[in-house]
Amino acid sequence: MATKTTRSKSTPAYRCGECGWATVKWVGRCGECQAWGTVEELGQVTAKTTAATSIASPALPIAEIDATAAGYRPSGVGELDRVLGGGLVPGAVILLAGEPGVGKSTLLLDVAARTARTGMRVLYVTGEESAAQVKVRAERINGIADTLFLTAENDLGLALGQIEKIEPDLLIVDSVQTLASGEVEGAAGGVTQVREVAASLINVAKRRNMATLLVGHVTKDGSIAGPRLLEHLVDVVCQFDGERHSRLRLLRAIKNRYGPTDEVGCFDLTEAGIEGLADPSGLFVTRTKDPVAGTCITVTLEGRRPLVAEVQTLLSKTTNAQPRRATSGLDAPRTAMILAVLQSRAKMDLSGLDSYVATVGGVKLSEPATDLATILALASSMHNHPLPPQFVAFGEVGLAGEVRPVPEIGRRIIEAERLGFKFAMVPASPHPPKNIPDAIRVFTVSSVFEALDIAFEQRAKN
Questions:
Q1: What family is it from (predicted)?
Q2: Which residues are 49's β-sheet partners?
Q3: Which of 52, 70, 177, 299 is deepest in the core (most CB within 10 A)?
């Protein structure tokens, strides 16, 4: 007589095939990754695959494996190479995600043209535009090359056939959500199709030792569309960000099997194409003849790169019962905390004033090291006294009014000196930076009161 397996009410009987989330009853949508139709009933799993009788490539001792084939090859775009750790690795699969219109296709078309000019064969597969539309963009950004091949395909099988025919050294697919396989069910961009397309492209990339760049769409909340498995399968995941009304674009590596994930690439998107910015600080600083009250320069870190940016503030009398607190480019809750510190600790009455705090050039400053510059800019606007010229400040401010140390103080000071600044206000640290240039005078502070006294004293002397 067959025995019946019983489950307790608290025993998970269903599991999501995408993220592994378990539940005691079936649901149509996963409660963890929010994917539809991926929750399946758990059952006894029996292995069906048997061991192969012959092996084409036997395992070797790790010391005998040739690693030269996995060396970096420069892409021709320095900022992309910086983020990747040195360049494109043969056989590596890179996923580039970003919002519509941010410049993903323009960047990869530029990479394709520069790589092709080195003599390598490049295949650009577009599923969103026609070949003629891509060529128009290539002519606009000077992206025409003899060994750059272009095809417009939405069928995965035809795209794989193009790869076998052309045998490229670099493959670019724009985008992975537009390709579909006729051998699996579902529409292009669905969970099943994206999984099949990614697995097929990764398989051919590893087999042919071909570097591959995949464009990925993002959802409304900024996450990569499709199954989370896609991010696990690829070798590198990069995020391309930028404000629609700003020319600046930032490239970050979220995952990188071949290099660091704390580097940031800066690009300038113009009508003539996209260009790497080795020194983007000039975009975020206003150059005026005379100092203006309410502004302060700071040095923030984007990855491991020091970036000089300007914080601007404006305080004006309000006619409303509740003063307005407007913020652009800075974290709004942190800015509200800084206003509270000024009100409670520095005894500045801001209750009847509207406050406007913004950055220059559309840059987003989320690092706490910008706190000190924001406080000095607000105090400067409050008293209508400009800060000293050629002056920078950075440091984290706590609720007690203390100024806390931040990472890489020495590197920030050196970057400020390189750009011509003469004064720097930094947090007091138990490990003071070494090798500070003599051309810049450094003031160390441990509280907001000390910072305000030194800043406006130096302004009086100047």
A1: Belongs to the RecA family. RadA subfamily.
A2: none
A3: 299
